[in-house]
Design brief:
Glutathione S-transferase Yfyf (Class Pi), Chain A, domain 2; Rossmann fold; 6-stranded mixed beta sheet; globular; binds adenosine-5'-triphosphate; 371 residues; alpha/beta; binds magnesium ion; 11 helices
Length: 371
């Protein structure tokens, strides 16, 4: 799939305008604070997700404007389509091909993209929550029912946690805990099953990309890590039984803490470079390469799932990568529609055909095409 036109009005610092990107590489360049990331953020919203910078809807509207209106024309499933997003009173109103949708989540799967931004380095640097968010978000793009499954799990988890606190006051409620443990183990097992399936694909693809980006000098590995004894279970029932056992036997700890200690909400993904934990031992460039490999792997899995290439958004990806790693990346993404932001376009301009857009203070100041 590819974007043919993107129009924006009242969005962040971007001056009302439009761009008509090419099918290949599109470079968005300019000095710091000119609006490059804002432009990628604008595109990303059409995936149906929230801002990848964690911004609230209201923050996306220009300081001087009441509302923001963005429109994207894109080619997908062998036809021209379009989608609009209006941000009014801090809420998003969306349409796809002229049909109003009741929630932005209904856009998921219509327009697909993957994004890499410096914020995503938290995937390695931060705690397990960021890694769970990454894997869950990636699965949501290919399995529509997964978001609902997560929501049901979280609801059940909250109910079990509330009960744990209530048991302190009314000990006779203790007998009802196992009902919630069973329900949680059932839902949790389905989440783990999806995550592990996804991780297997992610591992194969990310290993390949990391091997390429490091010229075969570094090994890459990821492992699902749980606090409740997940080993290499392949059947949902096995996962469910193991999780239930921990929930059931661990009730004393849960009871003391007033929260559920075991389950997918506490799980993690360990990322290794050269058999060492990337978070602890890897350099900045290695960490960036590892995140990039995961993101490219995500794009590849999405491509095979939707039978189309998703759009790739790369924000400030080239800094901290040496010339070889930059070159590998540029070559690897040929054949996909890509948007790359950077301050200096020279290096990329030398290597690629495509379009470039220069941003000055939110204004598209220059458009160039290289064939
Ligand atoms: N709602 C808004 N209204 C107006 N301006 C905004 C709004 N939100 C952010 N900005 C401004 O947009 C500017 C550009 O932000 P952006 O993150 O896109 O810069 P950038 O070109 O990616 O810079 P860098 O190279 O440093 O990453 C910032 O100076 C910020 O103050
Ligand atoms: Mg930026």
């Amino acid at each position: 799939m590819n974007i043919t036109r993107l129009q924006f009005s009242g969005f962040r610092n971007l001056e009302d305008s439009f761009i008509e990107p090419c099918e290949g590489v599109n470079i968005i360049y300019g000095d710091n604070a000119q609006g490059k990331t804002n432009l990628l953020e604008c595109i990303w919203l059409f995936t149906g997700g929230h801002s990848f910078r964690g911004a609230k809807h209201r923050e996306l509207v220009n300081f001087e404007s009441e509302n923001a209106a963005i429109k994207m024309n894109f080619y997908s499933q062998e036809r021209d389509q379009y989608s609009t997003i209006d941000i009014i009173n801090g809420k998003r109103e969306v349409t796809v091909n002229g049909v109003k949708k009741s929630s932005p989540a209904e856009m998921i799967g219509k327009f697909c993209a993957i994004v890499f931004s410096p914020e995503h380095l938290t995937l390695i640097k931060s705690g397990p929550g960021e890694r769970r968010k990454f894997i869950d978000g990636a699965i949501c793009q290919i399995k529509p029912g997964y978001a609902a499954l997560l929501a049901r799990y979280n609801q059940t988890l909250n109910q079990r946690n509330a009960l744990l606190k209530e048991i302190r006051r009314q000990s006779e409620l203790r007998d009802t805990l196992s009902i919630w443990s069973e329900r949680l183990a059932y839902l949790g097992a389905h989440i783990c099953f999806e995550r592990i399936n996804y991780m297997n694909k992610l591992k194969i693809n990310a290993e390949k990309f990391h091997d390429g980006i490091s010229r075969g000098t570094e090994s890459f590995d990821i492992k699902y890590s749980s606090t409740w004894g997940y080993k290499d279970h392949t059947k949902i029932e096995e996962i469910q039984n193991s999780l239930f056992k921990y929930l059931d036997e661990g009730y004393k700890t849960d009871f003391q803490n007033g929260v559920t200690s075991y389950g997918p909400h506490r799980d993690d993904i360990d990322i290794f470079i050269n058999q060492k934990k990337a978070r602890t031992y890897s350099s900045q460039g290695q960490q960036r390469s590892a995140v990039l490999s995961l993101k490219l792997a995500e794009a590849e899995i999405l491509r095979s799932s939707i039978c189309e290439k998703p759009v790739i958004l790369l924000d400030d990806v080239l800094s901290e990568l040496d010339a070889y790693r930059q070159d590998y990346l540029i070559n690897e993404i040929k054949g996909w529609q890509v948007f790359i932001t950077c301050c200096e376009p020279y290096a990329i301009n030398e290597m690629l055909s495509g379009k470039s857009f220069r941003l000055i203070n939110g204004k598209i100041a220059e458009k160039k095409e290289k064939i």
